[in-house]
Amino acid sequence: MALTEVDADHYTGQAFGTHFTDASGRIACNFNPAQGGCVFSAPDHRAADSVPVCAGSDTPMPYAAIGWRSSEELTTQVPSTCRIANAFFNSPAAVAADGRFTDAALPLNSRITMTLGWPDTSNTITCTSTATEFRCVHGKSGHGFVATATAIEIF
């Protein structure tokens, strides 16, 4: 299946980096040169109590957050998983009453590539959104994650 490349500039805002949701509104992502990742609000992706609470979260909640917490992690490590206190996760958009994120959505069958630093333009994250999965991969390391309707895999 051919994916449509979308322009990251449409999803980039001041002080918030590049932020967007998947087409369902159940996954919200934010990437900038220092860190990045996604929050999953769908019931099938709730974080277990055994998952550690994200740094800076006051109250453990079931929102699963997956991502890289520093620029060094982005280029060298697999993303980490934690529970976040709420679904805000550095996004300027509100969360709807039904738990969906309301930020600008990537269309189905699309791909967005974000350059995370200058002058090293090879430091990229590419996320794809299809009907069966949502995937984000770091361009240099190949590390990332994929979410399906029932599971999240980190690699």
Descriptive account of the structure:
The chain is built from 1 helix and 12 strands, in the order ββββββαββββββ. It has 155 residues and is mainly beta. The protein has one domain. The strands form 2 sheets. The chain has a 6-stranded mixed sheet with strand order 1-8-9-10-11-12, with no helix packed on it. The chain has a 6-stranded antiparallel sheet with strand order 2-3-4-5-6-7. Strand 4 and strand 5 form a beta hairpin. It is globular and about 40 Å long. The two termini are 23 Å apart.
Q: Roughly how many Å is the radius of gyration?
A: 14 Å
Count of individual beta strands = 12
Count every helix, treating DSSP H or I runs of 4 or more residues as helices.
1
From N to C, what is the helix and strand string?
EEEEEEHEEEEEE
Q: Determine the mean pLDDT.
A: 78
Beta fraction: 35-45%
- Distance between the amino and carboxyl termini: 23 Å
Runs in which pLDDT lies below 50 for 5 or more consecutive residues are: none
What about the largest sheet? 6 strands, mixed
Q: Walk across the major sheet and give the strand order.
A: 1-8-9-10-11-12
Principal-axis shape equals globular
Helix content: under 10%
Structural class: mainly beta
Number of domains: 1
